[in-house]
Write a structure and sequence with these properties.
Layout (H helix, E strand, L loop, with lengths): L3 E3 L13 E5 L14 H6 E7 L5 E6 L4 E5 L14 E6 L8 E6 L4 E6 L4 E5 L14 E6 L9 E6 L3 E6 L4 E5 L14 E6 L9 E6 L4 E5 L4 E3 L3 E5 L5 E5 L14 E7 L6 E6 L5 E6 L4 E7 L2 E8 L5 H7 L9 E5 L6 H8 L8 E5 L2 E5 L1 H7 L1 H6 L7 E4 L4 H13 L6 H14 L2 H14 L5 H10 L3 H13 L1 H4 L3 H4 L3 H13 L6
Parallel strand pairs: 1-18, 2-25, 26-28
Antiparallel strand pairs: 3-4, 3-25, 4-5, 5-6, 7-8, 8-9, 9-10, 11-12, 12-13, 13-14, 15-16, 16-17, 18-19, 19-20, 21-22, 22-23, 23-24, 26-27
Helix pairs in contact: 6-7, 7-8, 8-10, 9-10
Length: 515
């Protein structure tokens, strides 16, 4: 099988630590697994990792430093204490209070995590001792790995298919797990059940970056030397040049063909300097980002073999793996930083009913609602004419209730409404009066969502009154489908005579009274 990994150098010539990526406003929703989360849950996510044979496992942290998981839970890789799948996010209480510094995953899958305090935790698939706990039993819960690491602070972790690497703050590398190709670096091909320091050519070297392919390992020393096994490997030099070597059956080397390479060859992207490269052992996809912000991809991209770097419309390499890798996984632990920049729409929402910036106030039912003349004139034809030559800063309103008129003004700032079905009827009246057709549709949607046997007749009456034909038909059908209960309500007993007559006639025509 092929191995894929990536290492990168910063412009200073020093290797970049590929731990947590700082990407503001990252859209984690591009990964299909996140469709199981609500919009509210997605907004709370600050770190995320998608893994698994089908991109069907996810771990994420929230603004409250809580860790959640969801997915198929293959081999207990969610760390919940069992192997039961979950379609809803579950809090990982066993790591309560821990903050994630970096995380990686294998093919089993198994998970290796380092905290900001330098501790290492592992769980999941363990047939080859890749958890480093000295056994081959699958780990259903996170296990603290301290053997040979008790006095070490781990700063970076990496996983191959079934082996694991960690890098300590003093530049040492420890490895364990599957070793059929010597990927643990122990000098033999026997599996390694516990963390063991990698020496050999790394003896007396200070390592600053590590990565794993499916069955290989790589380390970058502070001298710029590279130690690696056979692999599909990408490296980025301090001059912004990408080199690749290894397996190339999907064109993942970006050389223009599918021939394997046993030595580094340059990957020609464009004249602009490359600042980031990306690959992952679970996919045959490669990506790179230039200093000018262009993102390129090559290799296996949704079933196609792209043998040369292809310019995408993405703004970050992570999106390549979300949209084109198979499976749709993350190639690194994502960090979703909160962005305090407000869009124009968000700024307008904040200014609704703000007395500090308003130049107009409406007096409704003895209460003030604060607004801005220029916005009202831009958003509403009625105000465009009524406020044109009006220099008053107070407008009294008696035609509509306070909740209804406030909801109308708020709609002009937010494009949305939040009302009960009964209040939405009043807003429907206003929308009809002001000829606000989009608002009229929103009111009808709200009424439909809140209809019940008790209010069905009242809502039907409102639909008829305001000539909302679609809503009228909806309410009528609801009444027919719940006829026995509806006809016993007070609303039906107090129904307008003409409306009752029309209702009975129409109900008869659709066969509501047949035996």
């Amino acid at each position: 099988m092929e191995e894929e990994l990536s290492l990168s150098y910063g412009e200073s010539g020093k290797p970049v630590q590929a731990t947590v990526s700082s990407l503001k406003m990252l859209d984690v929703g591009k990964w299909p697994i996140f469709s199981l989360c609500s919009e509210e849950e997605l907004q709370l996510i600050r770190q995320a990792c998608v893994f698994g044979s089908a991109g069907n496992e996810v771990l994420y942290t929230t603004v409250n430093d809580e860790i959640f998981v969801l997915g198929t839970n293959c081999c207990g890789c969610l760390g919940l204490g069992d192997a039961q799948s979950t379609i809803e996010p579950q809090r990982l209480d066993s790591l309560s209070g821990k903050k994630i510094a970096c995380l990686s995953y294998g093919s089993g899958p198994h998970v290796v995590l380092a905290t900001t305090e330098g501790e290492v935790f592992t769980w999941g698939h363990n047939a080859y001792s890749q958890l480093g706990n000295g056994t081959t039993n699958h780990g259903l819960m996170p296990c603290h790995i301290s053997t040979n690491l008790s006095n070490k602070q781990v700063t970076e972790v990496a996983c191959g298919s079934y082996h694991s690497l960690v890098l300590t703050s003093d530049g040492e590398v420890f490895a364990w797990g599957y070793n059929n190709s010597g990927q643990v670096g122990s000098g033999s091909t026997a599996n390694q059940p516990i963390p063991r320091r990698v020496t050999g050519c790394l003896q007396n070297k200070v390592v600053v970056n590590i990565a794993c392919g499916q069955m290989c390992s790589m380390a970058v020393a502070n001298t710029g030397e590279v130690a690696c096994g056979y692999a599909h490997t990408l490296v980025l030099t301090d001059e912004g040049q990408v080199y690749a070597w290894g397996a190339n059956s999907y064109g993942q080397l970006g050389t223009g063909n599918k021939s394997n390479q046993s030595y580094p060859v340059p990957v020609v992207v464009e004249k602009d300097r490359i600042i980031e490269i990306a690959a992952c052992h679970s996919a045959h996809t490669s990506a790179a980002k230039t200093q000018g912000g262009h993102v390129y991809m090559w290799g296996q991209c949704r079933g196609q073999s792209v043998v040369l770097p292809h310019l995408t419309h993405f703004s970050c390499t992570d999106d390549v793996f979300a949209c084109f890798a198979t499976p749709a996984v993350t190639w690194r632990l994502l960090s979703v930083e909160p962005d305090d920049h407000l869009t124009v729409a968000e700024s307008l929402k904040r200014e609704f009913d703000n007395p500090n910036t308003a130049d107009l106030k409406f007096l409704v039912d003895g209460k003030y609602i604060y607004a801005h003349k220029v916005l009202l004139k831009i958003r509403c034809e009625h105000f465009r004419s009524s406020l044109e030559d009006n220099e008053d800063d107070i407008v009294e309103m008696s035609e509509f209730s306070y909740p209804v008129y406030r909801a109308f003004l708020e709609y002009l700032y937010t494009d949305s409404i939040s009302l009960s079905p009964e209040e939405a009827v009043g807003l429907l009246d206003l929308a009809t009066f002001y000829r606000e057709n989009r608002l009229k549709k929103l009111c009808q949607q709200t009424i439909k969502q809140g209809i019940c046997e008790e209010n069905a007749i009242a809502l039907l009456s409102a639909a008829v009154k305001y000539d909302a034909q679609d809503l009228e038909e909806f309410c009528f059908r609801f009444c027919i489908n719940h006829l026995t209960v509806v006809t016993q309500t007070s609303g039906f007993a107090e129904m307008d005579h003409d409306l009752l007559k029309n209702f009975i006639s129409k109900a008869s025509r659709v066969g509501a009274f047949k035996n």
